[in-house]
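Researcher: Let's run the pair from yesterday's discussion. Sequence first, then tokens, for each.
Model: Starting with the first of the pair.
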Amino acid sequence: MGRRSIRCRQNAKDKQAVAGLALAPILALILLMVGLRWSAAAAGTVSAVIAAIVAVAAFQFGDEPADLAGPVLEAIFTAATILWIVFPALSIHEYQVRTGATGVIGDWLSSISSDPAATALLVGYFFAMFLEGASGFGTPIAIVAPMLVALGVAPVRALLVALIGHVVGVSFGAVGAPMVPLVEAAPVDERRLSLAILLLHACIGWSLALIVVKLGAMKSESRGGGGSTVTGSAANSSWQVAVMAAACFFPCAALIAGLAGPELPTLGGALLGGALFIVWLRRGSPPQIGEDAPAGRALLKAGLPYLVLVVLILASRLIDPLRNALRAYPIDWTYRQNFGDQILPLYHPGTLLLLAFVLTVLGNRSRPSLALTSMVAALRRLPQVAIALVSVLTLARFMVHGGLIDALAVGATGLFGQVWPLAVPLVGALGSFVTGSGTASNIIFADFQVAAADAVALPDWLALAGQSLGSAIGNIMAPHNIVAGTATVGLVGQEGRALARTAPICLAYALAGGAIVLVVGWAVDFLA
């Protein structure tokens, strides 16, 4: 018995040592970016090298030296798909700035309410979540951050708002894509699971609306002496406006989740909730907008790229024949059987963004030289961004293929023991931190979460709900999401500054979610 106890303790120490080695690349990335304020390109490159060394030396990754090229090829391919979103988004932004459209949109948003907190929520919360629900894949960050800068928000704050404001919607982003691996991992009812995820977010998600207001509310400035007719919201404190925004979004999203399932909670919740929020802002006020607000035709022209984008996204996601046709021509590749990836070029958000840009230029009858100048300006921002993306994605792919992610999850299970439910969202956050994708995090950890839940008698649906919450909040500190965002607001090289601000929020949110999962699990076990 004594020898068995010694062996068990030795096995536990071995598992802890392996988990510690697996954690080394992530710790290096955080230390270099947050502690030493290195750029993501430099920190990601060093951390990727560390991940490769650990994967080969400690986890026996790769049967042959040629296998080392697999994660790098996957990283390059994924980086290209992300850049395909960033480039047209930047082109639209450069075009909007050159035509003065951003100023027109700013005038209109200011005319809805004289309260800067309300303006921040309309752009950085509802519009960001609408984009996430319709498209995902980093589109909200690429579009919302530069819009906020144009409205007068400091670039760092605009980036943080874009990262944080859309995060609740990530659980059902891209018309429910992150939900697919969750419903495949266990025999759970997708509507019940969708509702559970939203209720879990609702318990703490209102705090993100407060953060959006704190970071995104710019000082009110008179535009030509005009005033807003919406005076009711100006008398409200910022926290009341933030809580009302959350109160408008979550019930609408929960109703849609319970009735229709996982495809439309974010998209529908943002549309319906945003409409209710505007109605609340206008309470007791005449329906007309401020005197200096732009005329309808000018506003339509300024908002044309976004209107076209909305129509394209809705049509491509919700009209089944069109959706199937756009998904019918995938581009995929494989390398040595274990590596590969796929892209749906016609269905990709970047393609829709580029099409929206082209249609806007044609619709406005703009000079071809103006469009070309905007695209060249966008292209000039891409090289350093591309290096950063490839480096952090290489880190991610070595951790996934080398088994480092699995080792970290096993180590976490042994560390938490019977209070494992507390760590469920942390695992989800770890996955999206490393991969930059809620969908990827769910793919990696869904089966693991179900197995761990069975070991501690936690309901599968509750474990998967916690995974979804964690994978959503983890996006705000994913390095390559931050890299893509910094590119749109001119902060390339300052990624560590953003990560230092988002990391505490991510950890606090995940831990709070874990506490709820733990308590609900206890309650379910008691009632059973």
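Model: Moving on to the second of the pair.
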Amino acid sequence: MARYTEHQRGQLDQTVHRWKSQCLLGDEPLVFADFPGLWSVDRLQELHRLFNDNPLAGEAAGGRFFTKLDEQLSTASVEVRLLTAEAMLVHLLFSSAMTTAGKRRTIERTMQDSGVSLPASVDAALGEGIGDPGMRFNLRRDLQLGYFIEFVLRLKQQPLDERIELLENPWQLRDFADDTRWSTNEMRHILLHLLCPDEFERISSGAHKRQIAKAFAGFLDTDAPVDVDERLFAIRQRLQSFLPDGNTHDGRSSIDFYHQPLHAVWGTTSSGSSDGVADIETLLWKKQLVLYGPPGTSKTWQAGKLAETLIRQEAMKRWGAKQFFTHAQALDKAVEDNVFRLQLHPGIGYEQFIRGLRLEGNVTRYRPGYLPWVVTQLEAQHHPDGLASLPGVLILDEINRTNVSEMLGEAFSLLERDQRGKPVQLPGFDEGQQPDVLVIPEDLYVIATMNEIDHSVESLDFALRRRFLWRECPFDRDALIEIISSRWSQDITARFGLDEAAIEQVHMLADRAEALNAEIENSAELGRHYQIGHTYFADITFFVGTWTEGRRNRPPNGTYLWNSRGNPQPPLTDLWQRSLEPLLHQYLAGSDLRTDEISRFAEAFLGRP
């Protein structure tokens, strides 16, 4: 069963059950009982005509999802507005990344001018959540809602007996969900899990599903199904024998792919698109990857997690499931030993990285640099019980701080996939010695990080660019919320716990951070490269913790960052004055518009969300 979540889900599942029986198999409303026939085909067709058949692109109607939705529903009946609200309610059930109040506001926004109130009873289901649907779920809500409307309309147009059969047969429902001209997205995966939670994982990302299926492919027979959802279902059944007590510690022997040790096997970093190629797939294919973006976007952390994922995934493939689970300590040691991190700076060149002359007594001799040492360490691997060797990962932190082409030397060409494992003689050798040979093994992967603000991606050697694939690491709203949530209990006394009201203000902070970065991107003085990474904003927990040390009572209604009038509280102004403003002053040094730009940025960040 794939029903596990970090939260309760009883009310949520009951809501989905009522939606199936009352709305999908019947025409009755989900929550607005005074409006019979709300989910009729005629009403759904009207909503499809107003929304799906009338897309508003770019800056049309104000450029935001809700301003566009207001325009699209401007001629809609009250019933269609309420149908949209109920559709939005089902759409939001899955997400655990939004607060109950945030979900309620989103639903109520679709009901404006209807004269109807959203019942308080829906809050119990909205407050549970199943998983984090990712950034694109919020950024492209138009695609999510459009797919939802199209799916439901097609389903309701089927005869009742066929609808019943589809909802009772998971794999037929899967085929029906995919038989569409509408672009499949997170909502496809969410709907299948909501309707068939015992067969479909609580995963909204097609890339995640594909990564998991690849990482655990050894669990499948040679005649295993091609479809990724069926493969995950089969993998889950096989995992039960290796993890009879589960891996979630919930007392129900639940297995979940987002918990350890399974999560570390298939990946942790983002691909930018929920169905696009994942970082681990990119790295395995090209063997070199650059993570680039503004400072403070967790590039080094992501590189380390990606390196660990690659090694653990290969251990699962090479050692097999039984040895993987029984040799956990050996695997942990391999991860520690096989990840090599080199912080680059202007003082590191060819002599330090490949080979250089060293004075030994009165004699000058050639001595290997860091890369040959890494290769030697990998060749010397030894694991218990004759287990196969594992790959190594070299993390080159901040590659733009040195002359990379010069530093790589002969390794520049050996990074090519078809040159791996081939020896090349190095020029110059000691008297009476044979020339040294450099080989980059097949099993050595390279992850580099780069701050664009220090050195533009476009200015790098084109030949060097070709040897790497690239992935931008932008400001990540969801990552900011996750970091603050994890730090809150560490930096702030338990008397001021992260309750619903505090979470609401954390989400408001994330909105303001996004707004500030939008202003920076649109600034003629700065631009996208100068956006501020999410780790800068995560320092807010320190300022909140310091501010609350001497307080006896909680701030009323969780007003840790903005008070009830919308004015910034001391922790927020401290973050601005001690971190963000000085950084922006440095970025704008020498600009005649610095004062005006700083004032505009301050208004975007400190103003009431």
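Researcher: Give me one sentence on the second I can quote.
Model: Strands lie at 288-293, 339-343, 355-360, 363-368, 392-397, 424-425, 437-438, 444-451, 469-472.
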